[in-house]
């Protein structure tokens, strides 16, 4: 295995043979899970300082900020939008626009909480989305929106941020994506 990759490509769980997807739901679920796994793989093994390191000051973009942001994204789309529960956004993002990034500091407790939050929100979203039809319509900012559109948006959100994570991780320790 080249030292600069995240792990041994032969044991990468995203590259293991799987049954071909059948139908729209399986296809969308497969892509969303692929990108969730990609984020987890690319952030694994870093300490609090590495995760909290800012990209290019004055930007607050960091690996830890992206993890917290993705936890917030999962929460907002699953709980607030699809389930319609008027809960506050994670990390106080209702009050402070970029609180998910601003609060991503070099502290082991913040890292532990971020991983726990992301894993909790992903698990809750998996469980709930499995029970909801892709045709189900919810209202997003007053507009009728099918759940399938939200799932596609989640895939887009993860794919975009996985690219950011690639670049940030390379700056932190030289590891490149696979």
UniProtKB/TrEMBL annotation:
Signal peptide: none annotated. Residues 1-22 are annotated as: Disordered. Pfam families: MST. Gene3D superfamilies: dinb family like domain. Coiled coil: none annotated. It comes from the Bacteria. This is DUF664 domain-containing protein.
């Amino acid at each position: 295995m080249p030292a600069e990759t995240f792990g041994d490509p032969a044991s990468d769980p995203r590259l293991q043979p799987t049954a071909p997807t059948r139908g729209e739901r399986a296809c969308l679920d497969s892509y969303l899970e692929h990108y969730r796994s990609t984020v987890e793989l690319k952030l694994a093994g870093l300490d609090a300082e590495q995760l909290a390191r800012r990209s290019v000051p004055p930007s607050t973009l960091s690996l830890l900020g992206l993890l917290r942001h993705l936890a917030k994204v999962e929460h907002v789309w699953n709980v607030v939008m699809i389930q319609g529960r008027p809960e506050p956004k994670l990390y106080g993002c209702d009050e402070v626009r970029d609180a998910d990034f601003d609060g991503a500091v070099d502290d082991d407790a913040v890292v532990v909480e971020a991983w726990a939050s992301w894993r909790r929100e992903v698990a809750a979203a998996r469980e709930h989305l499995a029970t909801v039809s892709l045709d189900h319509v919810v209202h997003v900012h007053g507009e009728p929106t099918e759940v399938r559109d939200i799932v596609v948006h989640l895939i887009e959100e993860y794919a975009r941020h996985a690219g950011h994570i690639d670049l940030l991780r390379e700056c932190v320790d030289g590891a490149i994506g696979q």
